[in-house]
Amino acid sequence: MSNKTTPRAATFVAAFEDLGVTHVIGLPDNTSAALFDLLASHAAIACLTVTREGEAFAIASGLWLGGKRPVVVIQNTGLLESGDSLRGTAIRMAVPLLCLVTYRGFAKMTATGGGPPIADGNRLIRHDFDSVALVTEPTLEAWGVPHRLLDVGDHRVCVGDAWEQAHRESRPVALLITQAMV
Amino acid sequence: MLTKEQFLEPLARYRTDEVVITTMGVVRPWSEHSDSDLDFASADSAMGHAADLALGVAMAQPYRKVICLNGDGSMLMSLGTLVTIVESGVENLLLFVVVNHSYEITGNQPIPGAGSVDFCAMAKAAGFRRRYDIQDAEDYQGRLEEILAADGPVFVSVRVAPGEEGPISRSDGESARYLRTSLADWSRKFRQALSP
């Protein structure tokens, strides 16, 4: 029996409220859509959608410079697109930044027993894997970004723990969201 | 066409408590006119992300004007940011694009569309209500006070002659104070300068 907990957008919003998050910057996908829908009318947390995910890290870094408490919400495909922005802004500037990264392809990858390693390039062209899932965690590890799966347990606590790590270590921390929010 | 000196000197003269974010070919020249804790060099950072970084600062500090001195090559790298700026609703962001048609830091190789891309037209299409297309020093001097006073977001394309700035480092060998420390250290100092 699975002990996975379906992530609820309202739980994330409640966690953001606990943490004093001022801005959510990102790009919705099917997994995070419910969160963006909820935030669209939130009175205290501003939500800004970007045109490309790399913008989100630069904007969030600027918000932090100006004294705000931003969170980035993007898909793992967008994380890959963001590489130099993440490296050159949030990481290089030592910005304590929580990043919620939705994990496209995770279910398919785990169902077929095929996580990393990906050294065999042929794995990236197989139709039974979503290649972005295969490279997500190895990429975060290569970039030195601490990351954890938000899969089981109390999601509100998980968000708080990741936020606390980002602030304790003054760097971005990724929380990987494996199931669609409701 | 303006020289960098003709572009930067009047701006520094009129500048009071505005944030100024520089990148690429104006990072060092701006430091010859300003040595403020409210200056931030998007250098040793991520090319193409000065304007969006400036947007974040502007969103965080709505009562302070934020001036971004972007390059044309840098602007081309993230044109979508023009739309994001307008969408954000900020009124305190002044975005200059230094149009020199080249990647100056690497030896003035031409940017794509050099001489044919109309940055003001792109800003208009993105929704910037106030746009200025500055081609010479006299026009610039005559409009600068108006540009600085205008409600934003404001977009200014400034035609500037290519210079000879080389690669930018962060080291004790740099004369600019904001380059003689790490990006992380300057970020902390800058953040402190912005705190109440």
Number of helices in the DSSP assignment of chain B: 8
Shape of chain B: globular
Q: Enumerate the strands of the largest sheet of chain B in spatial order, edge to edge or round the barrel.
A: 2-1-3-4-8-7
Kindly report the spatial arrangement of strands forming the biggest sheet of chain A. Answer: 2-1-3-4-6-5
Give the CA-CA distance, first to last residue of chain B.
40 Å
Question: How many structural domains in the coordinates of chain B?
Answer: 1
Protein structure class of chain B: alpha/beta
Largest sheet of chain B: 6 strands, parallel
Number of helices of chain A: 8
Helix/strand order of chain A: HEHEHEHHEHHEHE
The string of secondary-structure elements of chain B, in order, is: HEHEHEHHEEEHEHEH
CATH architecture of chain B: 3-Layer(aba) Sandwich
Instruction: Please tell me the total number of domains of chain A.
Output: 1
Helix content of chain A: 40-55%
* % residues in beta strands of chain A: 15-25%
Rg of chain A is 16 Å
Describe the structure.
The complex is a heterodimer of chains A (182) and B (196). Chain A is built from 8 helices and 6 strands. Chain A is globular, with a radius of gyration of 16 Å. Chain A has one domain (9-177): 3-Layer(aba) Sandwich (Rossmann fold). Chain A is an alpha/beta fold and 182 residues long. The model of chain A has no long low-confidence stretch (mean pLDDT 92). Helix content of chain A is 43%, strand content 16%. Chain B has 8 helices and 8 strands; from the N terminus they run αβαβαβααβββαβαβα. In chain B, a hairpin with a 5-residue loop joins β5 (102-103) and β6. Chain B is globular and about 40 Å long. At the A-B interface, β2, α3 and α5 of A face α3, α5 and α8 of B.
Distinctive features:
heterodimer, A: alpha/beta, Rossmann fold, 8 helices, 43% helix, B: 196 residues, alpha/beta, 6-stranded parallel β-sheet, two-stranded antiparallel sheet, globular
